[in-house]
Amino acid sequence: MTDPKTHSLIEDAQGLAFGATMAAFGITILTHLGLITGQTAGLAVLLSYATGQSFGLVFFLVNIPFYWFGYRRLGLAFTVKTALSVAMLSVLSHFMPGWIGFDHLNPAFGAVLFGFVSGAALLAIFRHGASLGGIGILALYLQDRTGFRAGKTQLLFDAALFAIAATFLPWQTVGWSFLGAAVVNLVIAINHRRDRYVAT
């Protein structure tokens, strides 16, 4: 009988490709609306807005320092899969705005759609033993070293991120962004099996 907790190389490749593609689609929705999100992706979005650089480049560079924490906390396989997933997302998010466009996208619906799409993307990435977020990896590492709960680290990071965004983005934009981030977290909270898959 096949162990439901393990995946073949082809299954991992398909799952990571699906997750990275869906995540890139989510980022395309997010940046089209000028919204932000939480965690490492949110940091990269804010930096891309501030510097004018593409999200893909910023996201790829921002994640580099976190691979060491991933290796120490979750091992080589996790770190390699994560690096590949981040690279795929970075490349796809650079090209995808040229492949699809929106004549009209309601901000409220767009925020919810981003949340659903990104939640599905992260579930796929987690299920196949990887991650897209350096902050989550760092939070787990700090939890091991200091005992400070990973969830609190992530919450504090997101609170700081949204507070910074609120200083230069319209309050409506921050509000819709918060809705999108809440939907992502809700999708993960309801559907993610922490006893089976890697959680970050």
From TrEMBL:
It comes from the Bacteria. It comes from Paragemmobacter straminiformis. GO terms for cellular component: plasma membrane. It is a multi-pass membrane protein. The chain crosses the membrane at residues 15-35, 41-62, 74-96, 108-141, 175-192. Keywords: Cell membrane, Membrane, Transmembrane, Transmembrane helix. It is found in: Cell membrane. The keyword Transmembrane applies. This is YitT family protein. The lineage of its organism: Bacteria, Pseudomonadati, Pseudomonadota, Alphaproteobacteria, Rhodobacterales. Its main location: membrane. The keyword 4Fe-4S does not apply.
